[in-house]
Amino acid sequence: MGQVIKVALTGASGRVGRVLTEALLGDERFHVVGAVDRVGVGQEIRSGKNNITIEPDLEGIFSRFRPQVMVDFTSAEAARANFRLALAYRVRPVVGTTGFTLADLDEFHSLCETQQIGAIVAPNFAIGAILMMHFASLAARYFNSVEIIELHHDGKKDAPSGTALKTAEIIAHAQAREEGAPNGRESESTPGCRGGCFQGIPIHSVRLPGLVAHQEVIFGGTGQTLSIRHDTTSREAFVPGVVMAIQKVMEINRFVYGLEELMEL
Ligand code: NAP
User: Fold this and answer.
1) CA-to-CA distance for 87 and 82, rounded, in angstroms?
2) Residue 25 in 3-state DSSP?
3) Burial of 122 by CB count in 10 Å (0-12 exposed, 13-18 middle, 19+ buried)?
4) pTM of the model
5) How far is the CA of 42 from the centre of ligand 1 (A)?
6) Which residues line ligand 1 (CB under 6 A)?
7) What is the rounded average pLDDT for all residues in the chain?
8) Angle, nearest 10°, between helix axes 127-139 and 162-175?
9) Which atom of ligand 1 is nearest to the CA of 98?
């Protein structure tokens, strides 16, 4: 076994954070030295014989325990500040939080370049979702018309999802689309019913209780359609991708956006 990696998690009381904290606590390749949230402070998260108490102060954990990696699943606002703080302590960020602007990503990129440190931001850590995007990029070369439907639980704060935006970006790139050139906009008697439009591709966001994270990419051609669908049925789906990112971020000194950059596709 290689060197045990010291990890701190932020958003540890959240829907994804709790699942990840438990998984990493129970994985002997990692030593969880901190679990941060503003919710559930003082509560313990357990896995087997290991446990960690939720604390509110990320900087305190950085200065006391010197983690090597920070895993962040919070909100875009919190994650921006956490990313900057992590780099100031030379802690490598692995960020699953969504809702960043292109300006945020540019800033992360240049901070990593200036400080020569690795960081990974990925809008989706489910390996099946990365494959869905990859298959969509292949299909995009053969079909001009495409729409994206993304479906999430009703607690999700941003719309459309980071994965839907990333998928649209990948398809637009594969098709060398003119930015902002839509498929053709019809008149809408109910405004918004044709969805939003990103890079010329309609995106429809559904928010309902009972859902976790799902996406369907539908291509249309003469006499045929092709649907590529991915369903996350439990948040454990994100664990293998996060584990892969924690290991890879220790080996790189640059900013990586998207798990696909770490997979050999
Ligand atoms: P969640 O249940 O709301 O969990 C986020 C946690 O972070 C909450 O406990 C929240 O507290 C806490 N938090 C937010 N701001 C904070 C701050 N400034 N200081 C301390 N704690 C703070 O959300 P989730 O469903 O776990 O998702 C978290 C993020 O990950 C979202 O951006 C989501 O879109 C993204 N996500 C990414 C992936 C992926 O594969 N990349 C997968 C699923 C979700 P409050 O409740 O008080 O705000």
Assistant:
1) 9
2) helix
3) buried
4) 0.89
5) 18
6) 11, 13-17, 37-39, 73-75, 78, 96-99, 122-126, 156, 238
7) 94
8) 30
9) 32
